[in-house]
Each structure stands twice: as C-alpha cells, then as structure tokens.
Amino acid sequence: MEQIYPDCQKCNAGVMIPLSDYGREGSSIMYKAWVCSNPSCGYNIRIDNGEVSVGKPIQQSMK
To answer: How far apart are CA 40 and CA 58, in angstroms?
Structure first.
C-alpha cells in the first residue's frame, strides 16, 4: 500500500515525513515529529512534553 505524505508548506519541494520516538518509560510515541524530506529546507514540527514547536533548528542528538 502506497503512503501519501503532505507537501511541505515552507519549500513546496519536499514532503513531510513522520518520525516516531519512545517516551521516558519506554512507551512508543507515534508521529512525535514531522520533518521535510528536502535536506536544504529543514522545516519540522515536533511535540515535546505536550507542547508543539514549529521550525526549531535541527541539530544532532548527543545521545
């Protein structure tokens, strides 16, 4: 089955790809973040501790 992702509203060249993560107690968090597939764009939407953040700079995790 083919997945259809929404177009990036910032660059219109990429699509928004969903990312998942694990919570503090090991439970799965589906679609914690959405990031643009266009590497030069960097647009993202994240949920952190119940707050939605839009467009924060992407940085590599040291974990």
So the answer is: 11
pTM score, whole prediction: 0.75
pLDDT tens across 20-62, in order?
888 888 888 888 899 999 999 989 998 888 888 888 776 666 6
Domain contains 60? no
Which structure tokens are listed for 17? 């790809």
How far apart are the C-alpha atoms of 40 and 63, rounded to whole Å? Answer: 24
In a domain, 11, yes or no: yes
The tally of domains found in the chain comes to 1
Is the CB of residue 44 less than 8 Å from the CB of residue 56? yes
Return the bridge partners of 48, or none: 51
Q: From CA 37, how far away is CA 15, in angstroms rounded? A: 5
Residue 22: which domain range? 1-34
